[in-house]
Amino acid sequence: MNLKDKYGGLALVAGASQGLGAAYAEALAVQGFDLILVARRKDVLEQTCREIMVRHSVKVIAVDCDLSDPKAAETIRDAVGPLNVNFLVYNAALPYIGPYLHLPVEEHTRMAFANMITPMTMVHHFGDQMIREGKGAIVLMTSLAGFQGSGFIATYAATKAFNLVLAEGLWYEWKNKGVDIIGCCAGATATPNYINSKPGSIGIIKPQVQAPEAVVNECLNKIGKTPSFVSGMGNRWASFFMRRFISRKEAVKIMGDATRKMYRIDY
Fold first, then answer.
1. Nearest-angstrom CA–CA distance, 138 and 128
2. Is the domain 3-262 a CATH 1.10.10.10 member?
3. pLDDT 10s per residue in the chain (267 long)?
């Protein structure tokens, strides 16, 4: 079934200028959704909007907004105004790779706002609209890092665990109300942020890097069918092994060792 026919015609993608967010915007435009695209870098965002409008002849509204701002959700609500958002994708996330104490607490707080508080607030606002309409869909992007403690990305991983649990809980609450929500657990994805982080080799046990389009297509095919999923066969096998065949202590150690090696962290 076409997602626009099922949920309605307006989609909002937060963190939409590049990578996974742009891939979501493209895939939803293909299905005929008009779009509201939110991102921090105005020039890149507006270029993405122009390209999508030319390719797909849909309406696209650009909202430049720093999602780590405590008032970000309010800014987005004001920009959307009386429009009813039928499909919400929260893709944006602030990462940090390195020793926890090397980053000021103010920056950890910015991560908490961008990765947890802003999406929670947006889900509350737009989810309420969808419940009243009796239809709608929400995607929360989360990560394999959120399945266990992950050294040197501790705050980022913790925020991703939050989004996964939030999505699963609301899936249960809303599954009989016409509103579908899903937590999309991605592994390493070939986004500009991932490429620019310059991850090194870690030998045989290495991330299965996916194209953003592959993650997006799998998610859009699964929404309405499950509360959460791990994207990519290789990632599913790795996740299954980490959660079923070794202790949690060993899983935490493997993740920390892998991150330390990939990013050449001397600590």
1. 12
2. no
3. 799 999 999 999 999 988 999 999 999 999 999 999 999 999 999 999 999 999 999 999 999 999 999 999 999 999 999 999 999 999 989 999 999 999 999 999 999 999 999 999 999 999 999 999 999 999 999 999 999 999 999 999 999 999 999 999 999 999 999 999 999 998 776 666 666 666 666 654 556 788 889 999 999 999 999 999 999 888 888 888 888 899 999 999 988 998 888 888 887
Q: Could you tell me if 214 and 231 are in contact, meaning their C-beta atoms sit under 8 angstroms apart? A: yes
Stated as kind and residue range, the H or E segment containing 135 is none
> Does the predicted model carry a pTM greater than 0.90?
yes
Do residues 75 and 65 make contact, with C-beta atoms less than 8 angstroms apart? yes
**Annotated domain spans of the chain:** 3-262
Strand 10-14 vs strand 87-90: parallel, antiparallel, or unpaired?
parallel
DSSP letter for each residue of 194-228: HHHT-----TTS----B-HHHHHHHHHHHTTT-SE
- Pair 188, 209: CB distance under 8 Å: yes
Measured CA to CA, the distance from residue 75 to residue 73 in angstroms comes to 5
Please give the Cα distance from 164 to 115 (Å, whole number): 11
Q: DSSP secondary-structure letter at 189?
A: B
Read out DSSP for 87-128?
EEEE-------S-GGGS-HHHHHHHHIIIIIHHHHHHHHHHH
